[in-house]
Amino acid sequence: MLPQATSEKIVLSIDIDYFFAQCEEVRTPELVGRPIVICVYSGRTDESGVVSTANYIARGFGIKSGIPIANAKRILKNVLQAVFLPLDLDYYEAVSDGVMQILRSGHPVVEKVSIDEAFLDITSECSRDYETARGLANRIKLEIKERTSLTCSLGIAPNKLLAKMASDSHKPDGLTVLPPDKVKTFLENMPVRKLIGVGPKIETKMNSLGINTIGDLASFDESKLSSEFGKNMGPRLKLLAQGIDEEPVKERSAEQYSRIITLKADADSFSFREELKPLTEDLSSRLKDAGRKCRTIGIIYITSTIRLRNRSRTIDRPTYSSGEILCHASSLFEELFASKEMVNLKIRRVGIRVSGLSSGDEREPGSSGQLSDYFG
Ligand code: DCP
Ligand code: CA
Ligand code: CA
Question: What are phi and psi of 40, to 5 degrees?
Fold first, then answer.
């Protein structure tokens, strides 16, 4: 048997569906089934700003990212069920962090590319076999659904470019497997705009040159492309159109770790210290596994009026001790309940976030990792 070329790899792309809007559905399940529009208010007037994203029900009415909020309101003015919510980036980041953690804990090479998107190099995990890869992708989908309630769309292909295009091709809740022998057919008749890297300006120029599909671009004269798009960009676009992309999946370490839980009962005082313990233990073991320590400890809390807020403090000596993290988180919660902020409010969900992570390997030889148990 001939040895496999080492460049033959299998990449998985994962993109969470209608991310910000889906986060709102998870936080407030009563919203499911209604059109949801997430707004970035600019603050000038009540309606100035743009739409960040919308769920698929709202998209059915023509709502999409980037349109003015005023237009979205006009389109949905007779749809009584429609909801317009302001952006809550802290919350979406915490949700994103949870998903990335699920991916990182089970797979060796994970590259987070944006808040709702990652690549995994699954070559060795699936022994270069696309059916094994499909099974793996289904398990990832299921695990994310079970642990976060989110749906996402996945693509599996021989490189990042094709994996991303595959995951984009079936949304929401899609899974598209694109083995090497299916690549040509997949790309051939696709509008050139769908090629990653081709924006509206390039599209217009390509159309004027008679390039309408990715197939047209793949067979277009290279020197003509160079003179039209530059001697780097021209040939690169042609390679992409042929489905060629050698970019490796670059493992990137997390900048923070967080965990959020729903309390057994809404709380108007700091009565849930015990419930925080498993969180701090989990964060501590993630830090230890990565050989890192944190300098900043933060608490995240979602009130019964469903706004996410947070507080944090920076400590002098970086730590990975669960006891120390719990101690600081507890005192942040105590301060919170003693403040005016919590008058007439209850907390429904709470979380802990550690950040300011040291980059190097800080495992102490011979150390059990647990600095002390004094903090409980
Ligand atoms: N986003 C934004 N403004 C844009 C595009 C995106 O604020 N013009 C934000 C909101 C999205 C998130 O980034 O939820 C992720 O962007 P995606 O392009 O992945 O879009 P969605 O996840 O919303 O939808 P899809 O189901 O198409 O992936
Ligand atoms: Ca998405
Ligand atoms: Ca995305």
Answer: -105, 95
CB of residue 365 inside a 6 A radius of ligand 1: no
Among 19, 91, 99, 171, name the best residue to mutate to test ligand 1's pocket (greatest count of ligand atoms within 8 A of Cβ).
Answer: 19
Ligand 1 contacts CB of residue 116 (under 6 A): yes
Model confidence over 83-135: pLDDT tens digits? 999 998 888 988 998 999 899 888 989 999 999 999 999 999 999 999 999 99
Pick 256-359's CATH classification: 3.40.50.300, 3.40.50.1820, 3.40.50.720, 3.30.1490.100: 3.30.1490.100
Which of 299, 302, 298 lies closest to 342, judged by CA? 302
pLDDT tens track for 167-192: 999 999 999 999 999 999 999 999 99
Per CATH, the homologous superfamily of domain 189-241 is 5' to 3' exonuclease, C-terminal subdomain (1.10.150.20)
